[in-house]
Amino acid sequence: MNASESQIDIRTALKQGLAQLRESPIPSYTLAAELLLLHVLGRDRTWLYAHPEEPVSRADAERFFALIARRTNGEPTQHLTRKQEFWGLEFEVTPDVLIPRPETEHVIEVALDRLAVRERRAGRKQTLTGEGLQIADIGTGSGCIAIALAKELPGATVYATDISSPALAVACRNAARHSVSAQIHFIESNLLDKISSVGSNPELHQSPVTSHQSPLLDLIASNPPYIGRREAATLMREVRDHEPEIALYGGEEGYELYADLITQAAAHLKPGGILVLELGHNSLPAVQPLLDAPTWTNAGVTNDLAGIPRVLAAERL
Question: What are the residues facing 185 on neighbouring strands?
Fold first, then answer.
C-alpha cells in the first residue's frame, strides 16, 4: 500500500514511514517519522497516538511520504520541518544556520551561573533580571544563545554577531517570534570586529546601535565553528552535506578561531566580565592554555552529559 493508491490511517502511515527510514538506515527513525507526520498534520504527539485510526488525506499522505523520501536521502529532519527546540523555545532553522544542539544549552547554564555568582560576590540580590547588563553572542546563527539569554535576562541588552547575512535574517525572525527584538542588536561581523555598529541594512539589523564606541560587556558567550576540516569525512552526512560549512569548520584542526576570539573578548569585556565558550570534543587542550594569560582568572570547564569537556569559562581581570 502507498499514499497514491488508497487512503490510509495514521497508524499505517507512521508504520510505513518509519519502516522506510529504518531500512535506509536513518538514526532515531521512529522520532523522525513521528516529527514529519506531526509536521504535515499540524498536530501534537498526544493527539497522534490517541487517534491511530484517523484517516490521513491523500494530499497529506503524499506530503508525508515525500518528506520521508527526502529524509532517507540525508536531509535533516529539522530542515524538513524548519524547526528545532532549544532551551524550551522553538526556533526556525534553515540550511543557512547550524541546527541548535542540546549540548549548547550548557553555555546558557554556565553563563547564568557565572552571573549569579558575580552578583553574590557583590552582595546584590539573587533575583537576576539582567538590568543594565551588556551581553554579546558571537556567531549567533539561529540566534538561540542570544534569544535564550534575552528571555532569561529581560533587563539586559544583547549584541548578536554573525559573519553570515542569511543566518542573521533567520536570527532576526526568531527574535521576533519570541518577542525579544527590542533587546537584541544583530550585527554582521567577523567575531567582534564590528560590535560597535550594525552596518547599513535596516531590513536585516533590528534595533540599531547608535554609538560608535565599543561597549564594555559584562558577558560574552559563543558557540564558534570548532570542527576540523580534516574531520569532515567522519561527520554524519546530515551534518557534512546539509549544514553551513561556515558554521561548522574552525580551520584544519578546528580550534583556530579561539585565539582571535579570546583576544578580542579581552578587549571588549569589563573587569570582572565573563567569557563562556562552547568547545569541540577535542578542543580543550588547545584552547584552555589561551586563558592562562594574566588577563584571565577563575577559568573552569563544564562537561556535557556524555562527559565531554563542553564549556570553558573565565573572567576578565
Answer: 159
CA dihedral defined by 254, 284, 240, 70, rounded to 10 degrees?
A: -160
Separation between Cα atoms, residue 134 and residue 214, nearest integer Å: 11
> How many whole angstroms separate alpha carbon 126 and alpha carbon 229?
43
- Helix 105-121 to helix 144-152 angle, to the nearest 10 degrees? 40
Give residues with Cβ within 8 angstroms of 57, minimum separation 6. 7
Q: Which three cell numbers stand for residue 274?
A: 565573563
Please check whether residue 97 is in contact with residue 167, taking contact to mean a CB–CB distance below 8 angstroms.
yes
- Contacting residues for 155 by C-beta, under 8 A, at least 6 apart: 129, 130, 131, 132, 133
Return the residue matching grid coordinates 571588549: 268
Give me the pLDDT at residue 214, please.
Answer: 57
Q: Three-class SS of residue 249?
A: strand
Cα–Cα distance between 309 and 301 in angstroms, integer?
6
112 touches 64 (CB < 8 A): no
Q: Are 206 and 184 in contact, with CB atoms under 8 Å apart? A: yes
Q: Is the peptide bond before 25 cis (omega within 30 degrees of 0)?
A: yes
Considering the entire predicted model, what is its pTM? 0.92
* pLDDT at residue 209 in the model: 40
CA–CA–CA angle 86, 91, 97 (5° rounding): 100
Strand intervals (E) in the chain: 8-9, 55-56, 83-86, 89-92, 134-138, 157-162, 184-188, 217-222, 269-278, 296-303, 309-316
Residue that has been written with the C-alpha cell 556524555 in this structure: 306
Q: Which residue has the cell 569585556?
A: 269
| Mean pLDDT per 10-residue segment, the chain (317 residues) | 68 97 95 97 95 96 98 98 98 98 98 94 82 96 98 97 98 98 97 69 40 74 97 96 98 97 97 97 96 96 97 97
Sign of torsion over alpha carbons 25, 26, 28, 30 = negative
